[in-house]
Amino acid sequence: MKIIFLILISLSLYSSDILTKYRNNGIKNIEKEMDLQLADKEYWDNYLKHVNTTFGYIEKYDSILTCNKAKSTLKLYKRGKNSDFEPVKDYSAFVGKEKGDKVREGDLKTPTGIYDITRKIEKLDSFYGPLAFATSYPNLYDKYRGKDGHGIWIHGLPATQEREKFTKGCIAIGNSNLICLEKEIDIDNTLLIINKDKIIQNVSKEKLALILSQLYRWRYSWLYNDINGYLNFYSHDFVKNNTMDLKQFKRYKTRIFKKKEKKTILFKYINVIPYPSSSNVYQITFQEIYKSDSFKFTGNKTLIVKIEKDNQMKIFTEK
Predict the structure, then answer these.
(1) How far is CA 234 from the centre of its chain?
(2) Long-range contacts for 41-48 (Cβ within 8 Å, ≥24 apart)?
(3) What percent of the chain has a predicted confidence (pLDDT) above 70?
(4) Is 240 inside a domain boundary?
């Protein structure tokens, strides 16, 4: 109850009569108004004032690895005492033989994008050093663009064998550095950002507030069964990860919204990151908690969005 009152006091800064509504009608009667406040850009402008946005808005990750392919470097950043991402270590790296973004299996290119570290591999050929970290390539955006291939790792170097100063698409660093890196990171809370050159830093809080407010406006439409408001957030070239196009998606969602079910929709561990080498494209990830009378789901959600010229967020693929 103490937490509820703290929330109400905070919200009263935006709505002078919210406490009166709570006093007369109880908490359920002002939930809708509170959900609408979360879609207010002013709320996010204020919230982000003292939030570190070096790489974007990041709630989940404690470590960020950045790879600059042009300079063949891998750099580790970790959250410091003030939740700022601070540089910890620079590593010289080998990257793919060919320049550009990976598109096809065997093209000898290192991908450009945003990836999770999915697992640590220890039993592997000695050519790859003592261990390797597997990445989530190809990710949702890669698949949307028709890219293929697999097995993009961060790995070490052969102890005795000779090797060329490039890879088939992976990122390779010295074995002692790889062992040190293993000790520095928790792979479940580490993000890898790869770009053709410099990694975007000091991301605009204005743009992040815009995206976060529209993310919650999308949620508001979903939560309160506003099918037109909800579908307005989807691009004409939208394709869901299971190949459902916009027309099919509209039919599916219209059937769901017609049920008029009372829903609970919560977003946790939100991350909003500008996508490397893509103009006004952002990757949004979060844990979604969804409950209705007919369906329950708790799991990870990914949206790839573009900010249009009118500052409207459009989702063009999701998983």
Answers:
(1) 18
(2) 41/209, 41/210, 41/213, 42/14, 43/14, 43/213, 44/208, 44/209, 44/210, 44/212, 44/213, 45/205, 45/206, 45/209, 47/209, 48/205, 48/208, 48/209, 48/212
(3) 94
(4) yes
Flag whether pLDDT at 151 surpasses 80.
yes
Residue-range definition of the domain harbouring residue 145: 57-195
Model confidence, pTM: 0.92
Predicted confidence band of residue 16 (pLDDT cuts 50, 70, 90): low
Assess if residue 73 is contained within a domain.
yes
C-alpha 220/C-alpha 12 separation (Å) is 20
- Tell me: do 270 and 297 sit in the same domain: yes
Looking at residue 15, its pLDDT comes to 52
State the sign of the Cα–Cα–Cα–Cα dihedral 124, 151, 154, 318: negative
Tell me the one-letter amino acid at 4.
I
Among 145, 170, 195, identify where a domain stops. 195
Neighbours of 169 (CB within 10 A): 23
